[in-house]
Design a protein that fits this description.
Chains A, B: Its cofactor is heme b. Two copies of one chain form a homodimer. Chain A is 20% helix and 20% strand. Chain A contains ten helices and ten strands. Chains A and B meet through strand 1, helix 3, strand 4, helix 6 and strand 8 of A and strand 1, helix 3, strand 4, helix 6 and strand 8 of B.
């Protein structure tokens, strides 16, 4: 399976969600605008190649001189493109670093919504798993393909960027196409039922892409999006000791089919007014209610989250949870208010702790001969 | 795909290596022998079920009372057995803890070779990624299946065991069947070419299983094996800057086909005497030479390693490498001397740092109605 790297929008957003993720955030270690542009140019060429199943460089892992390092690291020899998509984003600190310095002459083009996300209740952020000047999302059906992509981009960036943090995800939790069935998160529930599907073209336009003219200061971002990344640790050991009924009440859906507690099937619209024995059948603090567009000014997100397990925690359990990724047209309308509501009222929050957080502006698609983000530097 | 859980030997050793790994080491938090036996009995029942694609418990994730916690966590609903194998091992501290205490009345049955591995050069061990009273290796073709297995065993063990460390592996690096092609490690080289294959029945008997009578104190281990686990960090960023020729010299094989530098194809026996321009074609410090049975009293290992990437390291690179697993009849003859030779002389060692280490005795297969390790407690 191959997906086109170039187009009106970057791949890896509305692309049917692949099974595996390697996500990396980078710090730019140079102050040179030219070096930054050279990096983006080199990354574009390598990403274009790797998404076609080719080595990262023109010489390849084994075809060059034995006296030189190969321009591909070789662990993907013999593997095909694996449905690889590589999606690039720019963090707020690319425009103005933590000291307010405009290293690359970009400050006057910073998108208005591209700021460090505010502190939310339940945020216990690890700065070593948060933020970043640049991000790269590699999704593929083979984890070795996704890892190979990030690893080679890091190799190419040696001396210009350093990996700030990186996250592997082993199981997608969202569908971005109506052709996909809904997978389960580590709470054991179907996740992403109400996600925007690429087939919902009007909603994709409205809720995912940045419209031309939406941001006078950053019209370069038109056709792009915002990427919200949140590393959400789940207290799975505590969750597992809750009764089935409580788990379903927290979510507002059945664990079995994913149908709303008001009845029907997975894709039946929840009836938030249906009365139960005490209050509505779908509780006031149920997750499905609080994040529903009806209670959030109609806002929808396109989510591409992945489950993760990163070893163990000091409590003798697994360091596990959901690496949440959402693409939205504007985090000020499509993420921050919803996250605030959720953090304050959602019954599920008792079982969550957010340990990583980042926001990136995702430039539009890359045309023939262009490098990623070219409209920002033009 | 389903593999039988019960048999003469535990599954997950000679089973054709699956693509994904979740490995966990546990500390036993009780001093009660009865509770330990109850845990192993409950683990056996759950593992037997999960390897057949069934939920961990008889009720299942959604079929029980809404007033009780489910006896399966649910994230594997709708997934099949996924070729799952679950393999159990006992660490030295199960027999005698770090204070020398015999908590479970097992000290006089401790296998003679089951000791904390000696310190090797290049070992920079993190105690939080090393050792353990018990281990569970879950291998499957779907990572969600492997994670589900470990997570449910940890859930069942709540109050009796705590996860000490856990490791995900995303790409196998070894073949244990002649029907499998050889995958690549993160140095970009084929790994496991010379591995013992399950079809080599004589070598499996000789090098993998503990023979009856081999250890008078621990005859309960006959038909079992020893599991060596080593978390080997690769300095991939430094490796990637070495020339192709140097990389091949370090390994002693070509990067392309995996053939020995003395010629032929991947499975051609290396000619260690073939002269090159300076010394033998396969250098004195080449990895393939130093670990070859010809230079190690004929010892072979059955390896089941996996690649890993666990986020980033403080140097701005990836925390990546090889989670080495080997099954051997006796670590004193089949691992420790080879590891010492390698650590002292292998050119590849400059690019490795061992951050985790553990040794476990793997009890024999589980007969009908038995629990894992029953011969130890009988």
């Amino acid at each position: 399976m191959e997906y086109a790297f170039r187009g009106a929008h970057q791949a890896g957003i509305t692309t049917p969600a692949q099974d595996r993720l390697h996500f990396a955030a980078f710090d730019v270690t140079t102050d040179s605008r030219d070096e930054l542009i050279a990096l983006l140019t080199a990354w574009t060429a390598a990403a274009d190649r790797m998404t076609r199943g080719l080595p990262a460089g023109e010489i390849g892992p084994t075809q060059g001189s034995i006296n030189l390092p190969p321009d591909d690291t070789g662990e993907a020899i013999g593997l095909d493109a694996g449905g690889l998509t590589i999606t690039f984003g720019f963090g707020p600190t690319l425009f103005r670093d933590d000291d307010g310095k405009d290293r690359f002459g970009l400050a006057d083009r910073q998108p208005k919504a591209l700021r460090t996300l505010p502190h939310f209740p339940a945020d216990v952020l690890d700065p070593d798993k948060s933020y970043g000047d640049l991000c790269v999302q590699a999704c593929a059906d083979d984890p070795q393909v996704a890892v190979h992509a990030i690893r080679n981009l890091a190799r190419i960036g040696f001396g210009t960027v350093a990996v700030r943090w990186s996250q592997l995800g082993f199981g997608r939790t969202s569908t971005t196409s109506t052709a996909q069935s809904t997978p389960r998160n580590l709470f054991g529930f179907k996740d992403g039922t109400a996600n925007i599907k690429s087939q919902e073209k009007k909603d994709v336009e409205k809720h995912v892409w940045v419209a031309p003219g939406a941001d006078a200061q950053a019209d370069w971002l038109a056709g792009g999006s915002y990427l919200v990344a949140r590393r959400i640790n789940m207290h799975i050991e505590i969750w597992d000791r809750q009764s089935l009924g409580d788990q379903e009440d927290f979510i507002g859906r059945t664990k079995d089919t994913g149908a709303p507690l008001s009845g029907g099937t997975e894709f039946t619209e929840p009836d938030f007014d249906m009365p139960g024995s005490t209050g509505p059948v779908i509780a006031e603090d149920a997750h499905v209610r609080l994040v529903h567009p009806d209670f959030n000014n109609g806002a929808r997100m396109l989510r591409r989250g992945y489950n993760f397990v990163d070893g163990s925690n000091p409590l003798g359990g697994l360091d596990a949870g959901l690496f949440f990724i959402a693409y939205v047209t504007d985090p000020d309308t499509h993420f921050i208010p919803i996250q605030n509501t959720m953090a304050k009222h959602d019954a599920m929050m008792e079982y969550l702790k957010v340990t990583g957080s980042a926001l990136f502006a995702v430039p539009p698609g890359i045309g023939p001969g262009e490098y990623v983000g070219q409209s920002l530097f033009a």
